[in-house]
C-alpha cells in the first residue's frame, strides 16, 4: 500500500475513497475502500479481485502522503499555524472511512535548537491554509456538493450550463458520479458519459447498478458500448451483457443481478448480517433468496425467498430453508413488465425473483425498477398542474386494476431493442 486517496467535504472531515497499491512490475492501481474488510497488524484484508488498470487521479481526489502531508493549517482557536506531519483514518461504519486526527507541528521558535511544538488535533480543530498558487479549487468544488443526496446532486447538475455540468462531473469520484448518473434521465447520462474518456467511463459503469449500466450502454453507439464492456471489470461486464440479452419490456430487462443469495442451511443470524450491509439498496434488503449452489446468478435451482420481517420473528440459529415463503412464485425472465407490475401491486411486494428456463435464479425485479419503467420520461421535473395530477391518478388506478399501459420511455433503446 503506497497511499490513501480522500475527497474533501464541506463540513465533515475528508472521506476515504480508496487505497493506492503497488503490484508486481511497479504498477500502481486503485483499490476501493469498500473492498477493504480490515486494516491492522501490518496487513490489509480485501474482498474480490483488484483491477490492474494503472491508477489515474481524478479531480477532487487528494493523496494523503503525496499531497496532504506538509500542508499548512491554522488552529480555529486562533493559537497559530502548523504543518501536517501525519494523518490517521478511522472506520465510522462498515465501508465508511474518514480522516480522524492529524499530527501537526508548529514552526520552530527563535532558537535554532527549538524543534517546534507537536500536537494531535482533530480535523475540525484546524483549517487548511491555501498557499498562493496552490490548486485546490477542485477539492473545494466537490466539497460544496458533498452533503447532497445523489438525486439532489443530479438535479443540481442538470440546472448547470452544459460546459459547467461536464466540468463538475469530471471532478466527482467514480462512485459518486455513478450514483448521480443513476438519478438522471438517460439522455443526460449519455451526454455526460460521452464527455468522459473511455477508461474513466468504464470505471464509472463498474460502480453503477448492473441494470442501470445496461440501460445506459444500450443508448450508446454499438461500437462504443462494446468497447466500454471490454474495459469494465469482467464480473461487472458479464452481468451487464446478460441484462442486455433480455428484452427491455421483460422481467429480465428490468431486474438487477445482485440480490442477496444464501443456502438453505444459512441461519437467521447470517441472513440478517447480510441485509445490514450499508451499501445495499433497501428494496434488495427486504428479502433473501435461497438457492442450491452455486450462489451467484445464475445460481443453482431456486428454492424461494425469506422476508426480513419473518427472520426477525425467529431465533438466530433457525435455518432459512425452513422459513421460505411458499406462496410467492418467481417469474420467468421473459415475463412482461406489465405482469411483473401486477404481481408487485397485487401481493404488496417490493421485489419478485426472476428465474430462467432451468429454474435458476438470475435476478430480482424491485419496485423502484418498475416505477422507473412506468413513469414518464419527464417525471423528474415534478410537474404540479392539474392535468398531471389527473394522469397520476389514472396511472395509479390502472396499476391496481391491472390494465397498465406500457409507455415508450427511457428504458427502451432508441430503436426499441437492446
Automatic annotation (TrEMBL):
Region annotation (Disordered) ranges: 382-418
Domain of life (superkingdom): Bacteria
Organism encoding this protein: Agromyces allii
PROSITE patterns: CBS
Protein keywords: CBS domain
CDD domains listed in its UniProt record: CBS_pair_Mg_transporter (cd04606)
Record carries keyword Membrane: no
One Pfam family of this chain: MgtE_N
Full protein name: CBS domain-containing protein
Domain CBS per the UniProt entry, residue ranges: 324-384
InterPro entries in UniProt: CBS_dom, CBS_dom_sf, Mg_transptr_MgtE_intracell_dom, MgtE_N_sf, MgtE_transporter, SH3_actinomycetes
Amino acid at each position: 500500500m503506497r497511499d490513501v486517496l480522500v475527497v474533501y467535504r464541506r463540513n465533515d472531515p475528508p472521506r476515504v475513497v480508496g487505497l493506492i497499491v503497488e503490484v508486481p512490475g511497479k504498477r500502481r492501481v486503485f483499490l476501493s475502500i469498500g473492498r477493504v474488510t480490515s486494516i491492522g497488524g501490518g496487513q490489509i484484508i480485501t474482498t474480490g479481485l483488484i483491477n490492474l488498470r494503472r491508477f489515474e487521479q481524478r479531480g477532487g481526489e487528494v493523496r494523503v502522503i503525496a499531497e496532504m502531508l506538509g500542508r499548512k493549517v491554522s488552529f480555529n482557536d486562533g493559537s497559530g499555524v502548523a504543518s501536517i506531519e501525519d494523518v490517521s483514518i478511522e472506520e465510522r461504519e462498515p465501508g465508511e472511512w474518514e480522516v480522524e486526527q492529524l499530527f501537526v507541528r508548529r514552526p520552530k521558535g527563535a532558537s535554532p535548537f527549538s524543534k517546534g511544538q507537536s500536537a494531535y488535533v482533530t480535523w475540525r480543530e484546524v483549517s487548511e491554509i491555501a498557499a498562493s498558487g496552490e490548486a485546490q479549487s477542485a477539492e473545494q468544488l466537490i466539497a460544496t456538493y458533498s452533503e447532497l443526496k445523489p438525486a439532489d446532486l443530479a438535479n443540481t447538475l442538470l440546472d448547470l450550463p452544459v460546459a459547467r455540468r461536464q466540468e463538475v462531473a469530471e471532478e466527482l469520484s467514480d462512485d459518486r458520479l455513478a450514483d448521480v448518473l443513476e438519478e438522471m434521465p438517460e439522455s443526460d447520462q449519455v451526454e455526460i458519459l460521452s464527455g468522459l474518456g473511455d477508461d474513466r467511463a468504464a470505471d464509472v459503469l463498474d460502480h453503477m447498478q448492473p441494470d442501470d449500466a445496461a440501460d445506459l450502454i444500450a443508448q450508446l453507439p454499438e461500437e462504443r458500448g462494446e468497447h466500454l464492456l471490454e474495459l469494465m471489470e469482467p464480473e461487472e461486464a458479464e452481468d451487464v451483457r446478460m441484462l442486455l440479452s433480455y428484452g427491455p419490456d421483460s422481467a429480465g430487462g428490468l431486474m438487477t443481478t445482485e440480490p442477496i443469495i444464501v443456502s438453505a442451511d444459512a441461519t437467521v443470524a447470517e441472513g440478517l448480517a447480510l441485509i445490514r450491509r450499508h451499501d445495499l439498496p433497501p428494496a434488495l434488503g427486504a428479502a433473501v433468496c435461497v438457492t442450491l449452489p452455486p450462489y451467484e446468478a445464475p445460481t443453482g435451482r431456486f428454492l424461494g425467498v425469506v422476508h426480513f420481517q419473518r427472520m426477525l420473528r425467529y431465533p438466530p440459529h433457525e435455518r432459512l430453508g425452513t422459513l421460505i415463503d411458499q406462496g410467492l412464485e418467481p417469474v420467468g425472465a421473459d415475463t412482461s413488465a406489465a405482469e411483473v407490475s401486477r404481481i408487485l401491486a397485487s401481493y404488496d411486494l417490493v421485489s419478485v425473483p426472476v428465474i430462467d428456463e432451468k429454474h435458476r435464479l438470475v435476478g430480482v425485479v424491485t419496485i423502484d425498477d418498475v416505477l422507473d419503467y412506468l413513469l414518464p420520461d419527464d417525471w423528474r421535473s415534478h410537474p404540479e398542474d392539474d392535468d398531471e395530477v389527473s394522469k397520476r391518478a389514472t396511472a395509479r388506478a390502472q396499476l391496481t386494476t391491472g390494465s397498465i399501459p406500457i409507455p415508450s420511455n427511457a428504458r427502451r433503446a432508441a430503436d426499441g431493442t437492446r
